[in-house]
């Protein structure tokens, strides 16, 4: 059986929606397990006393990256059939900065706000209503934002293509960077606990 | 009643930053969070399963676009069809806008988080904030933050789930650019928002 199963016709759209729900349950479960249903836990990343966001995010990226890399090397997963968001570097720089600012102002990102709302947080309800209002505003303003939205198009480009390096080398570099980041994060947390013992 | 019981049965937690979270605390003690590396492996395996089963990653912000596309289509169908940003979520009109992959996935996120929170005793009706922030200020900031985030995610063609996690593990150039900018933007403004959290 070849993967991605859906792309090889193993099941149709309707069954795909059931998978969406099931995979979403797994996603929400681990977000909440990690503590990402709490705005205070999430923003701690940006005050450097608890770097769980970085640790969870990069462990997840490395896990999924190694999985796709080895499955595709083994000929079990056709990576060309996995959807890649195209690169438009200009709006992605602006959007990334805005999202980062919105993260500290609001306390969540979209996925974590849903997890937080489901566990009863009222500020997450306010955040979700902000997303709805913001999305409506974005749709209304879209004619004016069109130019920015389409600026800096580079197509579905990958990091290995951009760096002119083999995929395996980039995979190795990302693992190296993540492990270095984890060591650094542990050291930062220890240092912070020494300076501010009351907060940990 | 429950709060009285709690203060008798368990020592008060003294950390001032937890004062708001304690206000509606039930008698059950919340379990500690999962080890971040284990939770990360769990998330990564769910993401890998999405690649293998569906040929796509996880997301969140797109579900909100589908919701707005649906509302806009109800209110002003002609305008919604002409709106380049919403048109993609409406398709050819043969299928309901809410019958979308990301909408079902986000519903699952809510159910999964609820289950995890329930099993760990972490369901709390509360407003998360630091000791110096009022509930009102926090709710206003949260709404504003959600709106800012929406613009960021729609400009960036995805959020922390669709770009950073999914695109990051697929080694997408734009996703890594986006992710670096998310951390950059957040660290740049963190000091000005300390009042809300610390």
Helix and strand run of chain A:
HHHEHHHEHH
Radius of gyration of chain A: 20 Å
The radius of gyration of chain B is: 20 Å
Beta-strand content estimate of chain B = under 5%
Neighbour order of strands in the largest sheet of chain A: 1-2
> Helicity level of chain A, as a percent range?
over 70%
Number of helices of chain A: 8
Judging from the principal axes of the Cα atoms, what is the shape of chain A? globular
Describe it for me?
The complex is a heterodimer of chains A (200) and B (198). In chain A, 70% of the residues lie in helices and 2% in strands. Chain A has 200 residues and is mainly α. A two-stranded antiparallel ribbon of chain A has the order 1-2. In chain A, α1 (13-33) crosses α5, α3 (52-73) packs antiparallel against α8 (167-195) and α5 (110-118) packs antiparallel against α6. The longest helix of chain A is centred in the last third of the chain and has 29 residues, at 167-195. Chain A is globular and about 55 Å long. The termini of chain A are far apart. The mean pLDDT of chain A is 95. With 198 residues, chain B is mostly helical. Chain B folds into 2 domains: 36-124, no CATH class; 130-198, no CATH class. The interface between A and B is large, with 130 and 128 residues.
